[in-house]
């Protein structure tokens, strides 16, 4: 993939309400589907980080003094501005990330919906009062914003994963410095300008593009940052948590996943197969929360496997900007290489390839990081497809003897993000709800995340919650106040 000589946009950091000029050689942003040069972006330094954090700290005083309803009004205006910009931003998101036009539109609208959700909650934030602690003595528990929040966001869903943090953080009175992935900074930088035009004060939201090892580490380690909200891989998340321990910063981690789906013999098999296909191949399989392991009871396995293979085989792999494309490329050469290694090792160990397994043969896709939708039956249970997070369009399916075996294997993973069960049996559904060791379980439902419900993982999938009113607990400090009357 070469950069060519074409003239492309050049972007700098967004600090204190101003888009800075591009500086130096910078970083080239390439389209994962075509290799074309999309833009050049400043390679930020610790000096940029320091200025952004200080701008956020300076803006914190006035922003945090506004009432919740006032901040909610501004957040509502930001949501409306983002919604109005979806068409304009779609092409940028497709070009830098690689996803399809449809997926980019869904992501951007969901990001706006999340901001709107928290704007609507601005009149519902309540404290706690305790009367009569002693004669003439009452108590209150009040919420106080933390200060400057570092929001570190990966490349797979740059805007929704940002707004999951931005909505509750800003509503609670914090200010934010966002660090997008080094390969997908463009849409996030554009959001800074969109929100400023909607009325967000300078310094309340800042964006620093650049390498994680430089910019990310400087941001997490900055002494004025009081909270780190991170979404990304488990190894990097654990490193972030260790850095944030210096200074005792608050941390939430939304990390990797290997979500199981259990399909019982009494399920709506067609609906379950459809949910498995959508949950695995959406966004080219590049999601922490996605169907990555399927366990189907033996008696219905042939029917379910046939349906999933048929759906995977029909998916139209193509360049994201082309209207007919249903699945775009992997985001990078490294991502495709890792997926190919996981598939090859699992097949060598004994899995049966049912469809896909390699790169598309279409010459029009040769310059991108494409891979066929792949389904593998019964790979060994110690293979990479069973034990590792698989961040790409490969779905392993295992036939199991009974429901108890399915539950045991579903929990036999270092990860604990999401899970699904398909059954008409209420007892099975309730057992799954109680026993699946993860933060989210869908029963007879596709894997859709709702802003109304808390979301977060267990085990190597992280800790802390996003979404729901529960997110407020991770962006505020609860302070006890004792008042003696008279």
What is the CA-CA span between the terminal residues?
75 Å
Helix content: 25-40%
The assigned structural class equals alpha/beta
Query: Biggest β-sheet, characterized?
Result: 7 strands, mixed
Mean of the pLDDT scores?
Answer: 96
The geometry reads as globular
Strand-residue proportion: 15-25%
**Rg (CA only):** 23 Å
How many distinct helices? Answer: 14
Tell me the number of strands.
23
Q: How are the strands of the largest sheet arranged?
A: 15-16-17-14-13-19-20
Low-confidence stretches: 1-5
Can you offer a commentary on this structure?
The structure is a single chain. The protein is α/β, with parallel strands linked by helices and 486 residues long. 37% of the residues lie in helices and 22% in strands. It contains 14 helices and 23 strands. A seven-stranded mixed β-sheet has the order 15-16-17-14-13-19-20, sandwiched between helices. Strands 10-9-8-11-12-22 form a six-stranded mixed β-sheet, with helices on both faces. Helix 3 (86-97) crosses helix 4. The protein is globular, with a radius of gyration of 23 Å. It starts with 9 loop residues before the first strand and ends with a strand. Mean pLDDT is 96; it is low at 1-5.
Summarize the structure.
With 486 residues, the chain is α/β, with parallel strands linked by helices. The protein has helices at 46-65, 68-84, 86-97, 101-120, 160-171, 186-197, 212-221, 234-244, 269-281, 301-314, 333-348, 384-387, 403-411, 426-435; strands spanning 10-11, 14-15, 18-19, 27-30, 37-41, 128-134, 137-145, 148-152, 175-179, 205-207, 225-231, 250-254, 259-263, 291-297, 352-355, 374-377, 394-400, 415-416, 418-422, 440-443, 458-459, 462-463, 476-484.
